[in-house]
Design a protein that fits this description.
Blueprint lengths: L4 E5 L5 H8 L3 E5 L4 H11 L20 E4 L22 H12 L3 E7 L9 H12 L3 E8 L7 E2 L1 E8 L36 E9 L5 E6 L3 H4 L9 H4 L5 E4 L4 E2 L11 E4 L4 E4 L2 H6 L13 H10 L3 H16 L4 H4 L13
Parallel strand pairs: 1-2, 1-3, 3-4, 6-11, 10-12
Antiparallel strand pairs: 4-7, 5-7, 8-9, 9-10, 12-13
Length: 348
């Protein structure tokens, strides 16, 4: 098979591009509106993405086989009327559909947050799926977790794949076992920020959660949380606020969010019996970004960008399976209409 081409929409800092180029694809177009992300993208890939997806002239786009997009979940203007493609007008998702309709790629790979599944009681996702079906695609979706692809991070993301050829089989993805531990991804030498012993409290018998997280303590120096808190319940005001939780490096790390621009991710290192912040370099490592990747020099922007990005090894495995499925003959199930895109599978 000749080299497959793809376009990188809502590109961010290039997580999709890293995964697909590592799998042997050629990126022929990129689009990202955030100037700080554009700068990082250009610094790593040698091109500045087109800014505004709403202004793309589809006639000027080069040909490509695969479309990728980590699109934002923008509220739908008339969500719930179940008119499929028509219901997406006025949203950013519509512009993805507009490009798909004009260029007819073999496959579109879309990524979003887990809660898109439940948004508006599932009506938003239903319209997205129906819109892609109306454009002539078999559509399937799955909830994938970064921890299953070789990085120590519990990060669930919804992946939607629309294929001209046949229903994409998520169960063919190669998962990596056992799940790695966070301690194996820590930097040996960096600008470490340790907490003082009176700034945190460790709990007895840390709970090993089914997700792989080990909640081991919480910060205690934040006076804002002490006001109005009943005696002996101080920890309860911290357990449910991510910036004040502490997790053991013997487990994995929770999802790195884009909202935490101060990088308040605290880890307990049993071998040192100390608590410190996860460094920005470690954040990039547990998202699967290569060490040579050049992140934004503004620390707050860098934390936001990596929290908004995608798990590169997960995207890489998707890219490999997409390539494999494009090279295979059309499934007999599709030919006999036994299996249709209405039968959506949730992969776990």
């Amino acid at each position: 098979m000749t080299q497959l081409r793809f376009i990188d929409l809502f590109a961010g800092i290039g997580g999709f591009r890293l995964g697909f180029t590592q799998a042997g694809y050629q990126c022929v177009f990129s689009c990202e509106i955030d100037p700080t992300c554009q700068a990082v993208y250009a610094n790593n890939f040698g091109e500045t993405p087109f800014a505004d997806i709403t202004k793309i002239d589809v006639r000027s786009l080069p040909d490509f086989e695969v479309l990728t997009a980590g699109f934002p979940c923008q509220p739908f203007s008339i969500c719930g009327k179940r008119k499929g493609f028509e219901d997406t007008r006025g949203t950013l998702f519509f512009h993805i559909c507009r490009i798909i309709e004009a260029k007819q790629p073999a496959i579109a790979v879309l990524e979003n947050v887990k809660y898109l599944i439940y948004h508006d009681s599932g009506k938003t996702l239903a319209i997205i799926l129906e819109s892609l079906e109306e454009l002539g695609y078999y559509v399937s979706y799955a909830l994938l977790n970064s921890k299953d692809f070789g990085v120590p991070q519990h990060r669930e993301r919804l992946v939607i794949i629309a294929s001209k050829k046949q229903v994409f089989n998520f169960r063919n993805l190669s998962l990596i076992k056992p799940i790695p531990k966070l301690k194996d991804f820590l930097c040996k030498d960096d600008k470490f920020e340790y907490l003082l012993p009176d700034e945190y409290t460790l709990i007895d018998n840390p709970k090993h959660q089914q997700s792989g997280l080990i909640f081991t303590g919480y910060r205690t120096n934040k006076s804002i949380w002490k006001k109005g808190v009943r005696p002996n319940t101080e920890h309860l005001s911290r357990v449910h606020h991510q910036p004040n939780r502490i997790y053991s490096v013997e487990g994995i790390h929770p999802t790195i969010p884009s909202q935490e621009t101060s990088g308040r991710f605290f880890i307990y290192i049993p071998s040192e019996d100390r608590v410190r912040k996860l460094t920005i370099n470690e954040c990039y490592k547990i998202m699967g970004f290569p060490e040579y990747f050049k992140s934004c020099e503004i620390l707050g922007s860098s934390y936001k960008q990596i929290g908004n990005s995608v798990c590169v090894p997960m995207i890489y495995q998707i890219a490999l399976e997409v390539k494999k499925e494009l090279s295979q003959p059309i499934s007999k199930l599709i030919q006999t209409n036994i299996y249709s895109s209405k039968q959506l599978s949730l992969f776990s």
